[in-house]
Design brief:
heterodimer; A: mainly alpha; four-stranded parallel β-sheet; globular; B: alpha+beta; PH-domain like; 2 domains; 21 helices; 14 strands; Prot-tyrosine_phosphatase-like (chain A)
């Protein structure tokens, strides 16, 4: 599975021999590959006007392009804001609640993200074909898809350390602009142009997987909540800045020298056990989630975290822990 | 097995929402009680059982290239889509199912032919398992304020034989009140909260019209109020929407006027009527049946059905009652129109919220027998047991069961039983395999000789208790009253009920089964350990090899890693991608065959079951 940003085809259908060769060498004679473009066909076409575009079939004959539009940017942030507003409205009645849940479209985005990640995973696992994933910049929906696909496909990404490695690789080093995207969250009136909850969407999708495959992730919901918190505000330097360049060179602070790593703290034996899933049992197979609406739930542990007590669920987890440990 | 077939049809396909394209061929059998579909290939044999009584509708769909389709909708929300190769076969199955699924007389119901190998004594013991008097005793009744009476034996009241009324209410008062209540359903006690003497009582609507009064009825309410000296007032709760209650006045019925009844606080809690609920469920099921809906379609459909709104209304009412009794220490008298639908829901829910006993196996059975069966909920009409008036059918009991399930979600450690228990009870309310829910009232059940001719559901369930246990139950004393959050977001869509048979939709790994097996493994290990300990004094030297071969209970019980297949992630997959080849379910994921209400399961000696049950169900003290 590969990822990139969009080809700079532009309005004049520019070609680039090197790019074509690069993608060409990946495939054997007669082998087929898939390009999953996370923009709609129309949006991808329009991107040409501003210098971007898509890979034309004639220049990349062995690659089949599939469009799976995923929401990003302002609309995704609006979706998040509307959802949080609905969750916090305690005077709401049932019909209004369902109506707002539907119109904010957050769960639709979760479904779309899972479906696209599963598509990428299917290409690899079922078709045994290579996949290239890109959107526009390659820093948002692209990373969402590639990271999620790996959780689905690869059992080692479902371990605590493997998952951390995945985050480092696909999100942090992959250049997701955390500083811009995770600025003020859902309550700010600032409406920053670059803010968008892609990382939260990823964590939500991972939570959906943990619900459908409760034995297959080594880490618990608590880890996901901690990651969410730290992406926005953290005592650690892991999620600072927007890319590796800024962390090393650009940023005045020189992250690696002057901050502590979140992973180092999480992995201490005393801390670590808080983030483990007591039901974990290594599952060597691919985990294919159901993306039917009935199978996707609102992540109550996150969205109602401060609204409703988790006492009874915590007691349930304590019981599960007790049972599984055979006390 | 073979001798019992009425009909056998080859070349039948069973389609589901996932395997449209290459469904395998199988054989359809009809017996006197079930439809059985068998799909046998080289690797697997899969049986699908549908009880005829569970069939709500059978439709013939338009002819397709694959054959003649029949669509069966069941009362437990199973939807079976068969495609039959030959038209004549299809027609024959269709007409047979229509007849088999709509019995006319009660004697045609399964309960009267169901015959597990069981002695007459055991069957009788089974019927005596649930004794309501025991519950009244537990509540401290009879006491200074309340007495058990069979005073209603004299008039043709649909109430149970034995009812609980205030001691202070004389026979005149009771008689007079019964003339002023719809169908003579006088106020009787449903639950007594011993801690403060507040009571939950239930009745039907008064025949007050616009201005009628009845001294005895007013005295009856006064007696109820005074049976709780700790509170100066009592609530009267009408569970209908105000508009409906007012409309009833034009028909000479209605609701209590606060001016006429001393020290009552009257309140409407609008729960819609049986017709609204029937339509709501219909719409919900249409949503559940949608093939590959978008998230929007689903949520909009869910909203439009109104189903969760109604569930919330029932729950809100139960919560109100519980709060009034516990926090305000006030007694509550509840009614709707006839007092056998919404009233039953709300009173049983309130009892469950207040009293941990009803969250145990035994307690829950008693609750259902008390608030639903004894108090005359018309199961036969509401569940459409016989070919009757479709307007009487309504998912009243289903809603109650769902409210209990919603509570299971919010309080995972508070109930002795699990979701499967609820589903099984729900199945059997419709299955008519047992006599508990037949008929519409006590008198009819006596006439049909239910206790002599049929079996009780409860021993059957208790025998399978291990499947129905909640492994997270923290015991009787862990939680006292339950105070659920009733904000809209707290109500979840119950996939396990309304999309129960769409296996692909449910979590692929079942925590419940794993935890249950942890529990039983732990018990086995403890037994083994004590057995070995007993051997120790007699051994000379090294312990036998067995002692070392225990696996730790902590190790996850899943033996084979679980194979699952991707669903169709596209509406319209590109030609290049074929749908994943469906692999058979390798491990026992399909543990429960919900369709399988087979009569072939033998029953163990009932006495053993009852002994074990008596030991088990003593309240666990931590």
């Amino acid at each position: 599975m590969l990822r990139s940003s969009q080809p700079l085809t532009g309005p004049n259908r520019k070609r680039c021999r090197e790019d074509e060769m690069l993608l060409g060498t990946l495939l054997d004679e007669g082998e087929r590959g898939f390009i999953i473009d996370t923009r709609s066909a129309q949006a991808a076409k329009q991107a040409r006007m501003t210098g971007g575009g898509t890979e034309p079939k004639s220049s990349y004959p062995q690659w089949r392009r599939l469009h799976r539009p995923l929401e990003r940017g302002r609309p995704l942030q609006e979706s998040f804001i509307k959802l949080v507003e609905a969750c916090n409205d305690t005077s709401i009645n049932m019909d209004r609640w369902l109506s707002r849940l539907e119109s904010c479209r957050w769960l639709s985005h979760v479904k779309a993200a899972l479906s696209t990640a599963c598509l990428a995973a299917q290409c690899l696992d079922r078709e045994e074909a290579k996949v290239l994933v890109h959107g526009a910049e390659g820093t948002d929906t692209t990373l969402l898809v590639t990271a999620l696909a790996q959780v689905i496909l690869d059992p080692s990404c479902r371990t605590l350390t493997g998952f951390q490695g995945l985050l480092e690789r696909e999100w942090i080093e992959g250049g997701h602009p955390f500083h811009l995207r995770c600025a003020r969250s859902a309550y700010s009136h600032a409406r920053l142009k670059q803010e968008a909850p892609l990382f939260l969407l990823f964590l939500d999708c991972v939570w959906q997987l943990s619900r459908q495959f409760p034995f297959s992730l080594e880490f618990s919901e608590r880890l996901l909540l901690t990651l969410f918190d730290n992406a926005y505000a953290s005592a650690y330097g892991t999620f600072l800045c927007n890319n590796e360049k800024e962390r090393r060179v650009g940023c005045l602070c020189k992250v690696k020298e002057n901050t502590h790593s979140l992973w180092a703290w999480l992995n201490q034996p005393g801390e670590k056990k808080k983030y483990l899933n007591p039901l974990y049992s290594h599952n060597a197979l691919v985990i294919w989630p159901s993306v039917e609406p009935q199978s996707i739930q609102l992540w109550q542990g996150l969205f109602f975290r401060w609204i409703r007590s988790s006492q009874y669920l915590d007691e349930a987890w304590a019981e599960i822990q007790r049972l599984v440990e055979g006390n | 097995f073979h001798a019992l077939f009425m009909l056998q049809v080859e070349n039948v396909k069973l389609l589901d929402r996932y395997t449209n394209r290459k469904a395998a061929n199988g054989t359809l059998y009809l017996t006197a009680t079930h439809l059985i579909y068998v799909e046998a290939s080289a690797e697997i044999r899969k049986e699908t059982w549908i009880l005829h009584h569970h069939i709500a509708t059978v439709e013939k769909l338009p002819l397709t290239t694959a054959g003649y389709p029949l669509l069966i909708h069941c009362k437990n929300f199973h939807v079976a889509h068969f495609v039959i190769g030959q038209e004549r076969d299809s027609q024959e199955v269709y007409t047979s199912l229509l007849k088999l699924s709509q019995p006319v007389k009660p004697e045609e119901l399964y309960a009267f032919s169901y015959n597990p190998k069981m002695s007459k004594e055991n069957r009788e013991i089974g019927w005596k398992l649930i004794d309501l008097k025991v519950d009244y005793q537990r509540l401290g009744i009879p006491n200074d304020y309340w007495e058990i009476t069979d005073v209603n034996k004299d008039y043709e009241v649909i109430l149970a034989q034995k009812i609980v009324v205030p001691r202070a209410a004389s026979k005149t008062v009771v008689l007079g009140s019964s003339k002023f209540r719809s169908r003579g359903r006088i106020p009787v006690l449903s639950y007594l909260y011993k801690e403060n003497n507040a009571a939950i009582c239930r009745c039907s609507q008064p025949l007050s019209g616009f201005s009628a009064r009845c001294l005895e009825d007013e005295q009856m309410l006064q007696a109820i109020r005074e049976a709780n000296p700790g509170s100066p007032f009592m609530y009267v709760v009408d569970t209908r929407p105000k508009l409906n209650a007012m409309a009833n006045r034009a028909a000479g019925k209605g609701y209590e006027n606060e001016d006429n009844y001393e020290n009552i606080r009257f309140k409407f809690i609008g729960i819609e009527n049986i017709h609204v609920m029937r339509n709501s469920l219909q719409k919900l099921l249409e949503v559940c049946e949608m093939k590959s809906p978008s998230m929007s379609d689903f949520l909009t459909g869910l909203e439009n059905s109104g189903w969760l709104r109604h569930i919330k209304a029932v729950m809100d009412a139960g919560v109100f009652l519980a709060k009034a009794v516990k926090d305000e220490k006030a007694s509550v008298l509840v009614h709707c129109s006839d007092g056998w639908d919404r009233t039953a829901q709300v009173c049983s829910l309130a009892s469950l919220l207040l009293d941990p006993f009803y969250r145990t196996f035994k307690g829950f059975m008693i609750l259902i027998e008390k608030e639903w069966v004894a108090m005359g909920h018309k199961f036969s009409h509401r569940c459409g047991h016989l070919d009757g008036d479709p307007k009487e059918v309504s998912p009243v009991f289903t809603q109650f069961i769902e409210c209990v399930w919603q509570l299971l979600q919010q309080f995972p450690c508070a109930f002795e039983f699990n979701e499967r228990f609820l589903l099984e009870i729900h199945d059997h309310v419709y299955s008519c395999q047992f006599g508990n829910f037949l008929g519409t009232c006590h008198k009819e059940r006596e006439d049909l000789k239910i206790c002599e001719k049929t079996h009780s559901l409860w021993p059957f369930l208790l025998q399978k208790k291990q499947e129905f246990r909640n492994p997270l139950y923290r015991g009787f004393t862990a939680y006292k009253e339950l105070q659920p959050n009733t904000l809209p977001f707290s109500f979840q869509f119950w996939c396990g009920m309304y999309n129960r048979f769409d296996k692909g939709m449910h979590p692929k790994q079942r925590v419940l089964d794993h935890l249950l097996s942890c529990m039983s493994q732990k018990l086995k290990l403890e037994d083994n350990a004590s057995e070995l300990e007993n051997k120790l004094p007699f051994l000379d030297g090294a312990l036998p090899a067995e002692a070392c071969s225990f696996s730790k209970v902590g190790r996850a019980a899943s033996k084979t890693p679980m194979l699952n297949t991707p669903q169709d992630y596209e509406g319209e997959p590109p030609a290049a991608l074929s749908n994943g080849a469906s692999a058979p379910d390798t491990d026992g994921m399909d543990r429960d065959h919900p369709e399988n209400l087979s009569p072939h399961r033998g029953l163990h000696n009932l006495n053993d079951v009852l002994d074990a049950e008596a030991k088990d169900l003593k309240p666990r003290h931590h």
